[in-house]
Amino acid sequence: MGKTRRLLIVLVLLMSASCAFASLAYRPSVTAWFGGVFCHPEADYLKEYPGDETVEMPKFRTSCSFGFDVKLVDISLAFGKGDKGSVQIGCGISYMGVSRSLAYGISILKPYSALGTVVDLTVNFSRRLGVDLKYRYLKCHFTGTEQSFIAHDFEVSPTYRFINEAFTLGVALPVSLTWKADALSLRTSVAVVIGFDTLGLGSEK
Question: Is the pTM of the predicted complex or chain greater than 0.70?
Answer without folding.
Answer: yes
